[in-house]
Amino acid sequence: MTEFAADVQLGAHVDLSVLISGPCAAGNEAVALMMHGQSRRSREPLVTMSCAAIPEAQQEAEFRGHVELAQGGTLLLEDVDQIGSALEMCLLDFFRRRPTAAGYAARSIGPRVMATTTGALFECVVARSFPEDLYYRLNAICITVPVMSEVSDDIPLLVDQMLRALSALHRVAPPRVGRPAMAIMQSYDWPGNLRELRELLESLLISRRGGVINSDHLPAGMSAGSHPKIVTSWLTVGSRRLS
Fold this sequence. Notes:
The chain has helices spanning 3-13, 28-37, 56-69, 85-97, 121-126, 132-138, 155-170, 179-187, 193-208, and strands spanning 18-21, 46-50, 74-78, 112-117, 141-144, 176-177, 212-213. By secondary structure, the chain is an alpha/beta fold.
């Protein structure tokens, strides 16, 4: 097991904040989904706030609204390096007021916070453009998203973790992956990284519904190493459940 897979497992079973670092479109949000879906908070919502998409003047109010929506569950702050000074202070206040998890029900202590960044956040701390105190509060567990081809031995574990998380999200029985299909997944180079894995498994979860995923259920050309053409337009993708 690689350090990445071990960190994802750890993050799923402890109630600490997590900082997820990886390049744009690597699937940082998929890592958060895997941890949330296997945690004691999995029956509560995973709510995502895109910090880069919200004007700085509105971030504090948006954060407070997202906290209410995520009560008992997980609040994912995407692009946390893009927050303004008002939200920095609001987040610090949130962490200071939040009781420790021991002895409390998940809902009574508010949402667990995970955050993603596509840059080197510690460099922002060194440059004094991001608060050191807030960095360490977000960084209780630090996970760097790897290139999937570098962790091929962990593909079976990551597939299992992702299917469990997606099963909890959509309330659908997880399918079992047959050995030939798993062998193809391990040999594939995953140019879309974890995001591509998530989209593929989400489609298969709905189409197979507790059955078996065989090699002929995988996209054409996947075994040859070409980019699979995944059709997900009929899915409700993201942190919303299918009706």
